[in-house]
What we know:
Layout: H1 3-27, H2 31-55, H3 58-81
Amino acid sequence: xxIYFIIYFLVGVMQDVFWTxxxxxxxxxxxxxxxxxxxxxxxxxxxxxxxxxxxxxxERSILAITVYSLGIAVGTFIAMKSKFGKSKK
Length: 89
């Protein structure tokens, strides 16, 4: 198995945890944290797509995008089930 598929999956998880934190910080009116996580989310997603499009051939690119998307789904689940970014009341 190509090591890049594992990396794409893990980066997808990390990216979506960041994106979920970004949404939580927007909802709680924390603009500095929201914009910070927005920046990192954009850099990660665009960096991965650039890497997939320039590094891999057509067949493996589709698989890499699928693996990356699965990582994003797992990241959403982790972020929704965790206490990341929850305000203390």
